[in-house]
Amino acid sequence: MSVPLNPAPGDYLSTQAATPAVPTSAVAAPAGQEPAAPALSYAGRTLFRNGRQHQIIAGAIHYFRVHPEQWQDRIDRLVALGVNTLDTYVAWNFHQPEQGVAPDFTGWRDLARFITMAGDAGLDVIVRPGPYICAEWDNGGFPAWAISGRDMALRSSDPRFTAVVERWFDALLPVIAPLQAANGGPVVAVQVENEYGSYGDDQEYLRWNRAALRARGITEMLFTADGGTDYFLDGGALPDTWAAATLGSRGDESDAVWERRRPGEPFFTVEFWNGWFDHWGEDHHTRSSTEAAAEAAKILDVGGSICLYMAHGGTNFGLASGANHDGALQPTVTSYDSDAPIAEDGALTAKFHAMREVFLAAQGREPEPVPAALLEPAAVLPEAAVALEAGMGLLDFVRAVERVRSVKPLSFENLGLDRGLVHYSATAVLPRGDGTIKLRGLHDRAYVWVDGTFVGVLTDATGADGLTVQGTGAPAALEILVENQGRINYGPLFGQGKGILDGVLVNQRYVFHWEQRAVNLELPLERLLAQDTGAGTGAGTGAGTATGAGASGFFHGEFHVDRPADTHLALPGFGKGMVWVNGFLLGRYWEIGPQHSLYVPAPLLREGPNALTVLELEHGGEGAQLLAAAQLGSTHATHVEDLG
């Protein structure tokens, strides 16, 4: 099917899923015909493809991080890198964000079309359906509704958990199964779970996951994936399923572990971390092209197979970026460039050429020129300033949302909200003189007002310490706006809820009787702006600025485009918030960096006027800038070279 040039407002991560549909490109096996033998097999630590000795040389591209009109371009660039295989995760919450609505496999979510395009380009495909994918993606790929507020052991053989996953697999695997090599398609391998040895030791669950794949028609090679040491193998590998590794260095040492622990199995690094992702407030990660290519060559030189994670990272559009937790929440930035060989905007980097040389040599292929069309930089819009005018103030906006009453504060999950904001309000009696407002179980970031006056910001790390306020002993209006900055995608806190999970204290006394307003920022933009006449100033009771300078709330602008082309959007002077282009939720921005521009792919733009909308949570600036190149942070501050 054709994909519209500009998705409808909110289409990317809308909770209003399209009518469930069959994939547009599926290869059906002839009725009554026995499937062919799996394409991949191994013996004596040697991998074979259809009986011939083979090395997988792959690169990861996630269809959900690339605009569908750019799928072909990015696949073409992957082919030029010299690989023979494309690898992709499948993000459940991308296909089924809303409970009770069937999974959607159309348009941007047409997984079968993406796989088929890779096959048509001459590539094999590896599919990693999870259901847990990590991937620095919100909630590790799980819809919040599927696992939140339920008494279940996540990623285990708990039947309450497996029953939920079974229903997802019932919808997903019929999309993948017809595209297997045995049926004439490009899919040659499917992963069982994902890096399970980093999370649990329930071998019964891993066997269940493997059986669930087989029972739904997956006949090609199955494999697990875990870190390259004994510890991770102990928890995540199965004795009778190919075990792959995930690592960033010392692949030759991990190969020795595999030779000892997995005799007869070829070594396969299904994730070779040739770059790394970024958290807000930390450095931008880079890795030397020469060093990364040398480490990749070590794996290939011992006869191993390899997949670059990532070959092309793409973008965490919308609110899809996840978070880590190491003492405090570490939300992931909007860009998923990952210092990959193919940059976020499709540019071929120095790492592309270094890796390509290694890959061609490993296959005994003569060096050949990269197609000239791929070497040409993508067209970009002329640099320009875009004036922005303030609209409705932040508090005025969130106060207009329908309210839900409760005695104790309700979480995002209680309110049926996956991502976005929740506005809490109550009447609190503040003590005479100094008092402290404490938020117990805060996830993630809270803006606090008393009687309409902004008093400060609390985070998951500081919520229990609280904010000092002055009281008179009289009742005061307490308002708290909590932002979900991304659900945790890795580690023991995976599946953690959002909002105020315990309660609000004034000194040691709980505040009861709350009103909550769930602000779903993934709704179509016109619905979010229904209360905004554009005549407001963004000041007054709706301002609530965190720094005392500028205004918080909506800002609107417009820029003219003669011919759509890529651009990079910067918001100098703005603090923290979200931005839409032509009604499409582009992603989050935050002045603390490292990322200071957002990639705007050409398919999101149109000839003539283009609308720019900003929701600023802290302090607004005067305008936006369209830049010719990305500003992802210092390219020399951090090097990721020891990722074993």
Automatic annotation (TrEMBL):
<dbReference type="InterPro" id="IPR026283">
    <property type="entry name" value="B-gal_1-like"/>
</dbReference>
<dbReference type="Pfam" id="PF21467">
    <property type="entry name" value="BetaGal_gal-bd"/>
</dbReference>
<dbReference type="InterPro" id="IPR008979">
    <property type="entry name" value="Galactose-bd-like_sf"/>
</dbReference>
<protein>
    <recommendedName>
        <fullName>Beta-galactosidase</fullName>
        <ecNumber>3.2.1.23</ecNumber>
    </recommendedName>
</protein>
<dbReference type="InterPro" id="IPR031330">
    <property type="entry name" value="Gly_Hdrlase_35_cat"/>
</dbReference>
<dbReference type="InterPro" id="IPR001944">
    <property type="entry name" value="Glycoside_Hdrlase_35"/>
</dbReference>
<comment type="similarity">
    <text>Belongs to the glycosyl hydrolase 35 family.</text>
</comment>
<dbReference type="InterPro" id="IPR048912">
    <property type="entry name" value="BetaGal1-like_ABD1"/>
</dbReference>
<dbReference type="InterPro" id="IPR048913">
    <property type="entry name" value="BetaGal_gal-bd"/>
</dbReference>
<feature type="domain" description="Beta-galactosidase galactose-binding">
    <location>
        <begin position="554"/>
        <end position="610"/>
    </location>
</feature>
<dbReference type="Pfam" id="PF01301">
    <property type="entry name" value="Glyco_hydro_35"/>
</dbReference>
<dbReference type="Pfam" id="PF21317">
    <property type="entry name" value="BetaGal_ABD_1"/>
</dbReference>
<dbReference type="InterPro" id="IPR019801">
    <property type="entry name" value="Glyco_hydro_35_CS"/>
</dbReference>
<feature type="domain" description="Glycoside hydrolase 35 catalytic">
    <location>
        <begin position="47"/>
        <end position="359"/>
    </location>
</feature>
<feature type="domain" description="Beta-galactosidase 1-like first all-beta">
    <location>
        <begin position="409"/>
        <end position="517"/>
    </location>
</feature>
<keyword id="KW-0378">Hydrolase</keyword>
<keyword id="KW-0326">Glycosidase</keyword>
<dbReference type="InterPro" id="IPR017853">
    <property type="entry name" value="GH"/>
</dbReference>
